[in-house]
Amino acid sequence: MAKRLYVVGLGPGDPKYFTAQARAALEDAQVLCGYTVYVELVKGLYPDKETYTTPMTKEIDRCRWALETAEGGRTVALVCSGDAGVYGMAGPVLQLAPQFPEVEVEVVPGVTSALSGGALLGAPVGHDFCVISLSDLLTPWEVIENRLRCAAAGDFSMAIYNPASHKRPDYLRRACDILLDAGVSPDTVCGYVRSTGRAGEEAHVTTLAQLRDASLDMFCTAFIGSSSTLADHGRMIAPRGYEKKRAL
Amino acid sequence: MAKRLYVVGLGPGDPKYFTAQARAALEDAQVLCGYTVYVELVKGLYPDKETYTTPMTKEIDRCRWALETAEGGRTVALVCSGDAGVYGMAGPVLQLAPQFPEVEVEVVPGVTSALSGGALLGAPVGHDFCVISLSDLLTPWEVIENRLRCAAAGDFSMAIYNPASHKRPDYLRRACDILLDAGVSPDTVCGYVRSTGRAGEEAHVTTLAQLRDASLDMFCTAFIGSSSTLADHGRMIAPRGYEKKRAL
């Protein structure tokens, strides 16, 4: 019998964002594991299943535990918020997986915040876009700064993950200052969402100058428009094309 | 009673990728409309619902028809492949929507190809990434070229949409040449998927030099690794961080 580990993207939280494939994986699994908050989300739906939770910083232990448990013969679903890949556990699991050759790993994609938060705002990532995390826990700040500058030079729309946390209250302000320094207009249409699909859900359309001074937290995703992004009746919209072809 | 238009991202095709929210929108709708191929995907599930299809190039007519029909009192689901926003119909619908003030537009996000194709390959967009379309139907090629160069300068992972078509058989080669010219190593780990979730599904891990000469078509999505992307046991993996912090 196949030894199986699902790495499952749940979307932002509410079960309405679960795909049928994610639902089937959760049903097939004997053990649900992941970061405490995400396991709580699914536990209520499957109260009889075994669960295993680890705190935020113990991701590699969690991946190893999931692979070991699958190797032992129990089917495991390792749950992630958003997508299974994007800043998720699919990468570390697949890096460890060759040590567990009998385990078949199936990656189950999910709706990442750029899309779920984007839908609340309108269509901020309707055309070419970048996803950039401001967390410097595993990435040097210089890499993040360079990516912000390059995204600005490419006139990309951006979805900014992890814009702030208790330990990094000013990172979004630093990022906005880098974008302003790179020539992005302070009037650029921007937006942010908080707690998509959960209690306290909010969506705000603003400008880069205002976003710089907004109070975002770890439950937020920020969106920076390209030069052609519009604010229209409270929505943030990246047009599909360049009807007015711009000089570069 | 609310006049309602759902703009629904279906994911890559197979109903396993539908979210519960997408399913509920399709069920609530009286009329299903969209590009012929996508309406065919959902018609089988709801054979009794009215459908309205338009060809690929008639998107704006389709959006207007959907808004008019919703204004007339019938609930409409306008379906898109992948996400509702990413190169989808949410943008044009929201741009037209102020002309139909009684219609409530709800954007329902879906699993875009960067995620669904990414899951087949492993975790190619596990860290910061860009999504870039090579279609120059609505975007000048110079904008696309600049974005490729900036994505390379930022050492982003990339998901490349619309890598080729009958009319643009050599665009992926041109894009690869731009990346090589911008200093991306020919050994960079790359990948591509074809027909995710449909008959003929394929996933290939390769290098930038080989991707340049691969035969991709309009059913493909290509993935370009960052300098830290790994190929491991047939998977393409973007590590979550910079354990070896690189000099910039």
What is the topological layout?
The structure is a homodimer of 248-residue chains.
Chain A: E1 3-9, H1 20-28, E2 31-35, H2 36-43, E3 50-54, H3 59-71, E4 76-80, H4 90-96, E5 103-108, H5 113-121, E6 122-123, E7 129-133, H6 141-153, E8 157-161, H7 171-181, E9 189-194, E10 202-207, H8 208-212, E11 220-224, E12 230-232, E13 235-237
Parallel strand pairs in A: 1-4, 1-5, 2-3, 2-4, 6-13, 7-8
Antiparallel strand pairs in A: 8-11, 9-10, 9-11, 12-13
Structure description:
Two copies of one chain form a homodimer. With 248 residues, chain A is an alpha/beta fold. In chain A, helix 6 links the parallel strand 7 and strand 8 (157-161). Chain A has a five-stranded parallel sheet with strand order 3-2-4-1-5, with helices on both faces. The longest helix of chain A has 13 residues, at 59-71. In chain A, 30% of the residues lie in helices and 25% in strands. Chain A contains eight helices and 13 strands. The N and C termini of chain A lie far apart (58 Å). At the A-B interface, helix 1, helix 4, helix 5, strand 6 and strand 7 of A face helix 1, helix 4, helix 5, strand 6 and strand 7 of B. Strand 7 (129-133) of chain A pairs antiparallel with strand 7 (129-133) of chain B, so a sheet runs across the interface.
Overview features:
alpha/beta, elongated, five-stranded mixed beta sheet, homodimer, five-stranded parallel beta sheet
Mean pLDDT of chain A: 94
Work out the largest interface and the residue count of each chain: A-B, 77 and 78 residues
Q: How do the SSEs of chain A run, as a string of H and E?
A: EHEHEHEHEHEEHEHEEHEEE
Overall spatial form of chain A:
elongated
**Strands of the biggest beta sheet of chain A: in what spatial order?**
3-2-4-1-5
Characterize the quaternary organization of these chains.
homodimer
**SS-based class of chain A:** alpha/beta
Low-confidence stretches of chain A: 244-248
Helix content of chain A: 25-40%
Main beta-sheet strand count, sense and barrel state of chain A:
5 strands, parallel
As a whole number of angstroms, the C-alpha radius of gyration of chain A is 19 Å
User: Approximately what portion of the residues of chain A adopt beta-strand conformation?
Assistant: 25-35%
Distance between the termini of chain A: 58 Å
Number of helices of chain A: 8
User: Count the strands of chain A?
Assistant: 13
